[in-house]
Amino acid sequence: MKCPVCGSNSLEVIKSKGKKSKELLLKCEECGNIFREVVDVGKLVDTRVVVSEFEKSHKTFIKLYEDKTIYTGDLVDVDGRKAEITSIENKRGGRVSKSSVDEVETIWASYADIPARVGISVDFGGRILSHKVDVNPEFEFTIGEVAKIGNIIFKINSLKTLERKMRKGFARASVTKRVYGRPVDEKRFKYDLTSKVVVNEEE
Fold it and tell me: Can you give the residue ranges of every domain in the chain?
């Protein structure tokens, strides 16, 4: 939708009414023009969601408009709680970063009101020390950076996300399943995860 006066698409919805089609009262944020527009909002369809809460996950369905486009990172309402879309599978079996709802097979999401729980594995030449940490979902793990847990200082070598194994780059905690590293003989480190540890276990 665009303002009929100046052509801007920066619009504020002042009032909305209707279900199948909505009559909107809009105000252009550029020139201040106020005008009405009728839009067809499409049909609500049940869309399958697998939502995670720490190690547990459950399947449910949410109602979305079939012509709506969703993106990874979007927030959706699941069981009355906000959840972030972490992955989308379309009906062709592919993982995509965006899709129209009518092409979606499954949405993967994690609740946005809890920390992200991420596994940390440090390889001591065959002996693996494994931990789980709770961090802010926006926290970024970067391959090549040095981190600390307790008295162990290690360099991140690779990441396992919901979709792939990574050997370069970075990923947000919300989509990271496990961080792999090796101990290094360094004093400096980028971040200290000691206070974030919730589980210690040896593999």
Answer: 11-40, 44-111, 116-202
